[in-house]
Specification:
- The mean pLDDT is 87.
- The chain has an 8-stranded mixed beta sheet, with helices on both faces.
- The protein is globular and about 55 Å long.
- By secondary structure, it is of the alpha/beta class.
- It starts with a strand and ends with a helix.
């Protein structure tokens, strides 16, 4: 269960989640996406799809019509929108709660890797996700103010979850040397002030094809253009896959732990 987050300006976060899922699915890996950003639930938009039904539809009694809570995208990728405050689930009748958690458990067991599009504002559902995710990827922009924002995001994550496996992706870079310099600056600051190390998953070029794919609502990895950004995405996907905390096999159930956290906090 990999949570991907970034500063509040970071549409590239959602772009990265969408395209990394496609790169993993191309390698015959079963991938799920959880859109956990209620302010900007844009995963379905990036796929060129209408949003699925609300998660609360899982709580309803079966009436012959299967709710479209989980969408299927290209290459068999599954998309689930976490569009409700999870703490409200505990207020539902027991039978409704059981149906919701059973649906989430099925979504998890059907996936080898789940990518969570997570908001930078760490409260509500995002707070729980950052507490429980098996790994967290932070998007780091190339400008100085953006780097400071990314540092603050990492600092807030560590306040919630000391020792969580952290990785970074540098974006909007113009050349490889710039990406390397930014990573070195981040690692020095994180090591000196927070005593933490992060893994460098790679970088994304400032590529006009990224903006075009978003505007056209077509994932870049599904377009014929073999841009520099598309090559970067393939490399990031492979580096993410080999991280020991990225895959679901052999891991504790994320949604089991999430349910316990929601019910205990009540």
């Amino acid at each position: 269960m990999v949570a991907v987050t970034g500063d509040h300006r970071c549409l590239e976060k959602s772009f990265l989640v969408c395209n990394l899922a496609i790169e993993q699915a191309r390698r015959r890996r079963q991938v799920g996406i959880v859109d956990a950003d209620p302010s900007f639930p844009d995963q379905a938009f990036l796929w060129g799809r209408r949003p699925g039904d609300s998660l609360t539809r899982l709580a309803e009694e079966e009436n012959g019509q299967e709710p479209q809570v989980i969408l299927e995208g290209p290459l068999g990728i599954k998309l689930l929108s976490l569009d409700v405050d999870l703490h409200h689930i505990r207020e539902l009748p027991e039978s409704s709660r059981e149906r919701i958690w059973a649906g989430l458990h099925t979504f998890e067991t059907d996936s080898q890797m789940i990518l969570i599009d997570t908001p930078a504002l760490i409260q509500g559902n995002a707070h729980l996700i950052h507490r429980l995710a098996h790994q967290i990827v932070v998007m780091v922009p190339s400008d100085p103010l953006g780097m400071m924002d990314a540092y603050s995001v990492i600092k807030r994550i560590l306040a919630i979850r000391p020792g969580v496996p952290l990785s970074v992706v540098i974006y909007q870079v113009r050349m490889v040397s710039e990406a390397q310099s930014i990573f070195e600056q981040m690692t020095r600051a994180l090591g000196e002030f927070l005593n933490v190390r992060v893994v460098n998953l790679g970088y994304l070029y400032a590529d006009i094809n990224i903006e075009r794919s978003i505007l056209q609502r077509t994932p870049l990895c599904l377009t014929p253009a073999r841009s520099r950004a598309a090559q970067c995405l393939a490399q990031i996907a492979e580096r993410l896959w080999i991280q020991p905390d990225s895959r679901e096999k052999g891991r504790r159930s994320f949604f089991h732990d999430l349910r316990q956290a929601v019910e205990v906090s009540g």
